[in-house]
């Protein structure tokens, strides 16, 4: 047999994953290693299908039954005029024939509804994309759809019960019926992981430059905060390389990481399931981040009680950043080496290009685990976010010691309070991180390892570090206005995320019955009411407002404390572009319809 059956550009019939429906698709490419065809549906959706899920168009031409091909006159003329006493009456015989033909027509209609191809006309666009006739529905309409299809399925089972087929054929029909029920329940099955075709972040060259640029940026910002004049034109003197390394700081980083790992493994908190993987399997995660934060706060309180000088972090922050960067690099090497032995279905969709630099940066394996210990999920919230709070506290104590203050400055209190609220909110709503792009799409490599362990704790604490060397005095009315701004941003951020997460977890929740959404071919819905009908990423809008409120207590003498706002806007715009491309490929025409309904991406009337 040839290595492949269908050629590139050939129009065939492809089965939609998780159902028995076949649609007209065009073959775009073929993977010789995975033996998968990449096909394109008419709505623009691209999927990878096995050869067994593809059939030629000629196989869908139904043959006419023998009874329907002969005319009534031929049937009547072929019968004998003399009727046997054992035969039923003529009227009854004709009635039985009509009843039998009615059953056959009913059965044929139901069978055709399982595999028939909708006409590629404009009126069938919605049905072709796997959607009902209405473009919008609320969260309870999926149940109504199942109730409408239930009578047809029951008729089908009754007809098959009295058929003269063999038990082998009946078993095959039961499997098809089972697949039909799976399609009605709208449980999507993601496509199998294949090679990454489109590389982000500038490809191999861009990712290599980022691996050099990101650590250099961290050290540059920290050195600038130490300057008396932290203006952009006043470049700081470079320290000696040997002065950046401190084994004590490296030991503290290791101790901190493994202490958080011990808290993560404690059998407290509930265990939840994540979103389905490409294989349909769901991983389990223990939700105990908030408990780990309480234990961490208690440990820090014990250190302060015994007069441990926490402001030591301020004097050696460069050394701690260097130690954290070295640890993140070592962790990235381990992650890439172990990913070389990972099965194909466990690799990240965006980190399987085959190029070392690119896969090392973006992450080759999607969910690396040591037993039940999920490395990516652990690093996403635990060491970095809690380390951020500890560094902020150290800066507060350093400000009091250096400037001989009995209480911290109002600016320092605002920065610590705002960012503490953000971290506590993330840990309290820890389960929400399971639906983010970092967990569901991005692999765990240098990008996330460095970002979680170095960038978050040492760059996000830049405002507090700046205020130690450059104290800023603000009035109470100004502080009240900044607090109100932060509250507005937090409200948008939290309510939008809660709305999205609750809908993803249980779209049929009666509490969400008032929300309207656009159904998609994947079984998921795109919200068009609430915050997600206001802009496409309202959580990003809330994030940006809060970032501005964190920087305003530092005054306007220098742009350095506003680096976080500028960086965060660039980050969210880039992430929005990535999400836009991903959703366009995943949802097809449904996403186009959503973009027409919600035209603004992040900020209304601006972007």
TrEMBL record:
PROSITE patterns: STEROL_REDUCT_1, STEROL_REDUCT_2. Residues 53-139 are annotated as: Disordered. Its main location: cytoplasm. Its EC number is 1.3.1.70. GO terms for molecular function: Delta14-sterol reductase activity; DNA binding. It catalyses: 4,4-dimethyl-5alpha-cholesta-8,24-dien-3beta-ol + NADP(+) = 4,4-dimethyl-5alpha-cholesta-8,14,24-trien-3beta-ol + NADPH + H(+); 4,4-dimethyl-8,14-cholestadien-3beta-ol + NADPH + H(+) = 4,4-dimethyl-5alpha-cholest-8-en-3beta-ol + NADP(+); 5alpha-cholest-8,14-dien-3beta-ol + NADPH + H(+) = 5alpha-cholest-8-en-3beta-ol + NADP(+). Pathway: Steroid biosynthesis; cholesterol biosynthesis. Keywords: Cholesterol biosynthesis, Cholesterol metabolism, Cytoplasm, DNA-binding, Endoplasmic reticulum, Lipid biosynthesis, Lipid metabolism, Membrane, Nucleus, Oxidoreductase, Phosphoprotein, Receptor, Steroid biosynthesis, Steroid metabolism, Sterol biosynthesis, Sterol metabolism, Transmembrane, Transmembrane helix. Residues 76-95 have a biased composition (Basic residues). Residues 4-62 form the Tudor domain. It is a multi-pass membrane protein. Residues 99-110, 124-136 have a biased composition (Basic and acidic residues). The chain crosses the membrane at residues 205-224, 244-266, 287-306, 318-337, 448-468, 474-493, 514-535, 555-574. It is found in: Cytoplasm; Endoplasmic reticulum membrane; Nucleus inner membrane. Signal peptide: none annotated. InterPro entries: ERG24_DHCR-like (IPR001171), Lamin-B_rcpt_of_tudor (IPR019023), Sterol_reductase_CS (IPR018083), Tudor (IPR002999). Belongs to the ERG4/ERG24 family. This is Delta(14)-sterol reductase LBR. It comes from Setophaga kirtlandii.
């Amino acid at each position: 047999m040839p290595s492949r059956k269908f050629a590139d550009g050939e129009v065939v019939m492809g089965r939609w994953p998780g159902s028995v429906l076949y649609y007209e698709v065009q073959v775009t490419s073929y993977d010789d290693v995975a033996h998968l065809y990449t096909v394109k549906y008419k709505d623009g959706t691209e999927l990878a299908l096995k050869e067994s899920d593809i059939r030629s168009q000629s196989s869908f031409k139904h043959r006419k039954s023998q009874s329907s091909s002969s005319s009534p006159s031929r049937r009547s003329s072929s019968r004998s005029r003399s009727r046997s006493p054992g035969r039923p009456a003529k009227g009854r015989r004709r009635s039985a024939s009509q009843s039998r033909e009615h059953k056959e027509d009913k059965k044929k209609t139901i069978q055709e509804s399982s595999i028939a191809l909708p006409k590629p006309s404009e009126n069938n666009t919605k049905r072709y994309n796997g959607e009902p006739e209405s473009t919008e529905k609320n969260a309870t309409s999926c149940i109504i759809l199942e109730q409408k299809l239930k009578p047809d399925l029951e008729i089908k089972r009754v007809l098959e019960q009295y058929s003269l087929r063999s038990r082998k054929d009946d078993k095959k029909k039961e499997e098809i019926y089972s697949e039909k029920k799976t399609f009605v329940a709208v449980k999507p099955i993601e496509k199998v992981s294949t090679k990454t075709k489109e590389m982000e972040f500038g490809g191999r060259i861009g990712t290599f430059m980022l691996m050099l640029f990101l650590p250099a940026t961290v050290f540059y910002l920290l050195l600038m905060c130490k300057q008396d004049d932290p203006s952009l034109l006043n470049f700081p003197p470079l320290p000696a390389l040997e002065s950046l390394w401190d084994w004590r700081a490296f030991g503290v980083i290791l101790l901190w990481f493994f202490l958080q790992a011990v808290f993560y493994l404690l059998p407290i908190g509930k265990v939840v399931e994540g979103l389905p993987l490409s294989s349909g399997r769901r991983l389990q995660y223990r939700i105990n981040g908030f408990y780990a934060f309480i234990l961490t706060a208690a440990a820090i309180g014990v250190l302060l009680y015994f007069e441990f000088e926490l402001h030591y972090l301020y004097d050696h922050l460069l050394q701690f950043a260097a130690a954290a960067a070295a640890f993140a690099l070592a962790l990235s090497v381990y992650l890439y080496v172990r990913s070389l032995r990972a099965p194909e279905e466990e690799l990240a969709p965006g980190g399987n290009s085959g190029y070392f630099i690119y896969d090392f940066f973006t992450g080759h394996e999607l969910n690396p685990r040591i037993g039940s210990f999920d490395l990516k999920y652990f690093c996403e919230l635990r060491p970095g976010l809690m380390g951020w709070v500890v560094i902020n506290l150290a800066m507060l104590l350093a400000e009091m010691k250096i400037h001989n203050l009995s209480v911290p400055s109002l600016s320092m209190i605002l920065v610590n309070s705002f960012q503490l609220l953000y971290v506590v909110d993330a840990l309290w709503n820890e389960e929400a991180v399971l639906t983010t792009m970092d967990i569901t799409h991005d692999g765990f490599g240098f990008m996330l390892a460095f970002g979680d362990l170095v960038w978050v704790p040492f760059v996000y604490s830049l405002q507090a570090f700046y205020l130690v060397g450059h104290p800023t005095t603000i009035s109470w009315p100004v502080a009240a206005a900044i607090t109100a701004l932060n509250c507005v941003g937090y409200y948008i951020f939290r309510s939008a995320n809660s709305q999205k997460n609750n809908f993803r977890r249980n779209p049929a929740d009666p509490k969400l019955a008032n929300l309207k959404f656009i159904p998609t071919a994947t079984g998921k819905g795109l919200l068009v009411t609430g915050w997600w009908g206001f802009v496409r990423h309202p959580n990003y809008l809330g994030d940006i407002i809060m970032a501005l409120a964190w920087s305003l207590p530092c005054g306007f003498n220098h742009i350095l404390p506003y680096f976080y706002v500028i960086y965060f806007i660039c980050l969210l715009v880039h992430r929005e572009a990535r999400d836009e491309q991903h959703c366009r490929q995943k949802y097809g025409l449904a996403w186009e319809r959503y973009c027409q309904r919600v035209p603004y991406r992040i900020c209304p009337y601006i972007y």
